[in-house]
Design goal:
The complex is a heterodimer.
Chain A: E1 3-6, E2 10-12, E3 18-25, E4 33-40, E5 44-52, E6 58-60, E7 68-73, E8 78-83, E9 92-99, E10 106-109, E11 113-117
Parallel strand pairs in A: 2-11
Antiparallel strand pairs in A: 1-3, 3-8, 4-5, 4-9, 5-6, 7-8, 9-10, 9-11
Chain B: E1 4-5, E2 9-12, E3 18-24, E4 29-30, E5 33-34, E6 36-41, E7 48-52, E8 56-57, E9 65-70, E10 73-78, E11 88-93, E12 100-101, E13 105-109
Parallel strand pairs in B: 2-13
Antiparallel strand pairs in B: 1-3, 3-10, 4-5, 6-7, 6-11, 7-8, 9-10, 11-12, 11-13
The chains are: A mainly beta, B mainly beta.
Chain lengths: ~120, ~110
């Protein structure tokens, strides 16, 4: 069955960067669109962007351009997200998800990674 | 961006019908496609897809869940509500980029 296993919780200092991972199995990764989303209590869920695993093509939410960088490793069926110059506003739970590019829903989600930003 | 508005909470009794609404700031329908989707999220867990394109049940989702609507007004119905359905429900549109989510409706027991 489809599995998306995300890396563990991160505690990072303000100004630092962090790289989150999402290891997948149970589907054809190389033809999939992998998305990342941010959840903070109250403001709900925000879409960060997607990456097409086939060729590495990306599409970002304008709000997260310069903040997030999406990459994939097809050999290990893993998606990555780099977050840079972290501030308290980046503290959140981040999810990876399989994105249905045809009509735009998020079919399967990882369990989430909590990122805490603190000195 | 398209804004989706949901009521923050809904109290319901077990065995009764729950109706959760989502209103979009502009139409999310194209031709015959209604690009609204619904998710369930329990505390400490990831969201799970329930309904796609307004009325299509996702794989493995019980038939007591159903969705309807078009244009700007959409509804998720749970009938009858079971204890396992206590969760927060989110709508999401894909009519325009960026895809956006509603603020969530927390389903509570009366």
């Amino acid at each position: 069955q489809v599995k998306l296993l995300q890396s563990g919780a991160e505690l990072v200092k303000p100004g630092a960067s962090v790289k989150l991972s999402c290891k997948t199995s149970g589907f054809t990764f190389s033809t999939s669109y992998m998305s990342w989303l941010k959840q903070v209590p109250g403001p709900s869920i925000e879409w960060i962007g997607w990456i097409y695993a086939g060729d590495g093509g990306t599409n970002y939410n304008q709000k997260f351009k310069g903040k997030a960088t999406l990459t994939v490793d097809k050999s290990s069926s893993t998606a990555y997200m780099d977050l840079s110059s972290l501030t308290s506003e980046d503290a959140a739970v981040y999810f990876c998800a399989i994105y249905s590019s045809y009509m735009g829903w998020f079919a399967y989600w990882g369990q989430g990674t909590l990122v805490t930003v603190s000195s | 961006d398209i804004v989706l508005t949901q009521s923050p909470a809904l109290a319901v009794s077990l065995g009764q019908r729950a109706t959760i609404s989502c209103r979009a700031s502009q139409s999310v329908s194209i031709s015959r496609y209604n690009l609204m989707h619904w998710y369930q999220q329990k505390p400490g867990q990831q969201p799970k897809l329930l309904i796609y394109r307004a009325s299509n049940l996702a794989s493995g989702i019980p038939a007591r869940f159903s969705g309807s609507g078009s244009g700007t007004d959409f509804t998720l119905t749970i009938n009858p509500v079971q204890a396992d359905d206590i969760a927060t429900y989110y709508c999401q549109q894909s009519r325009e980029s960026p895809p956006t989510f509603g603020g969530g409706t927390k389903l509570e027991l009366k």
